[in-house]
Design goal:
The chain is built from four helices and two strands. With 152 residues, it is mainly alpha-helical. The chain has a two-stranded antiparallel sheet.
């Protein structure tokens, strides 16, 4: 029997697994209430998408998009593979910065999803650091093919 066309998780780099898995969990966590205040039986709160969290949401969507493109081996003619890896590492670092800013700006009535968001942002930043290291060592050829395959 032949294996159907698609993706093979075993061919993904560790950085790709961390970035994709952490980003999906972060996206789910952003839907939950990061700030919650209860006054008697009445509770109100806002999700991670509130305020500056919109920037974090857009960044995590970009990371997910880049990883899905890599995972499925789609051919994207946009810069070199090394520049795309560096961009993704920068997005992971920016996600951590904007998550911390969100927590500092909306520091009242923090709920457990906010703390989980910080942990996930640190995990994603570590995945971004790993991606940056891979780009330095291998010339950007990580996890899959996003271009013509020639490192610069």
């Amino acid at each position: 029997m032949s294996q159907a066309n698609g993706f093979d998780m075993s061919k993904m780099s560790t950085a790709s697994k961390i970035l994709l898995g952490g980003s999906i969990l972060y996206f789910i966590d952003m839907i939950l209430q990061w700030n919650k205040a209860c006054f008697g039986p009445i509770c109100a709160g806002v999700s991670g998408w509130h305020g500056i969290g919109i920037i974090s949401g857009l960044i995590v969507l970009a990371i997910i998009g880049m990883e899905v493109i890599t995972l499925f081996g789609m051919n994207v003619e946009m810069g070199t593979a090394q520049s795309r890896s560096t961009l993704e590492a920068g997005l992971a670092g920016a996600l951590l910065v904007f998550t911390l800013l969100k927590i500092l700006i909306d520091s009242e009535f923090l709920s457990w999803p906010a703390w989980l968001g910080i942990v996930l942002a640190v995990v994603i930043a570590y995945g971004g650091w790993m991606r940056w290291q891979e780009a330095k060592v291998t010339g950007g050829m990580t996890g899959g093919s996003m271009g013509d395959g020639t490192p610069s």
